[in-house]
Amino acid sequence: MRNRSLITHLRHIDIAMPNFAEQRRFYTELWGLTETAGDTGVSFLAAKGSPEQYVVRLREDAHKRTDLIAFGAAGADDVDTLTTQLTSQGVQLVHEPKTLDTPGGGYAVRFFDNEGRVVEVSAEVSARRHRKVEAREPVPVRLSHVLMNSPTPKATVAWYITHLGFRLSDTMTLGDRGEIMWFLRCNTFHHSFGIVRGPHAAFHHASFEMRGIDEFMRGTGRMQRLGIERLWGPGRHRAGDNSFSYFLDRAGNTVEYTTELEILDEDTWHPHLFDLRDPTNADQWGTANEMDEFIAAKSHNDVDPGLFTAPPM
After folding, report:
1. Residue 2 above 70 pLDDT?
2. Cross-referenced Pfam families, in alphabetical order (predicted)?
3. Where are the alpha helices (DSSP H) in the chain?
């Protein structure tokens, strides 16, 4: 059974870690996000060009984990409809739809995906007053997409298509190793979410959209001058046609600056298979350092200890 998509967009990614102060400083002073709310051991971080109340939530915890991935719906009725569908399909809820007490409020349901990640779908969240990011300003405009590692990737891709109505945009392959990366969309952006074949379930990377190529390159250069470990890039992907520069945050999560992510025509688009043995499928420009097993292993990340365990907030 495939549901009509009730998901409109990606809202935020919430992560926890022991080194909270370092992470907070990384995302605010170095990466370019703005703290809009917070309390002891928690910080809500917005992108300057986004109406979302926050695109990243940091939470101090004894263990590093992904707290949740949050998506938007058009209205409260859609949240209720989705909840009914999920319940009828045997999806385990974290909680029934209820009013949120996070910045901007709203109405949301939370549930576990097939591998135990917590997913939130919300509506009626108040928009944040934001501003246009100016030319040459190297700060994120919005959260672009989030990818997750999965040891059972085909089942996980099928779960998001079946239960949440995501559509497959493109798939990356690696010769006789087969399919290794799946890009999923919930609107006309090429992807807002994706799954990567990995040794265990874990956060793969979060990507932040910059104003344009100049701002993307300025942000990339700023991070390099600050001595932040660069994993891969700058380059330009084939799938999604977006630019990329990948770095590691202070907890070892991979984060990306990107821009110009492809916008698709839903009526004419057909998914492609791109083989990474052709280097132009990984980087059309040919400017990035070569992707190797060492770099890939960094984005495999640590085993997530929070699977099938709801975060405390």
Report:
1. no
2. Glyoxalase
3. 20-25, 76-88, 153-164, 213-225, 279-282, 293-300
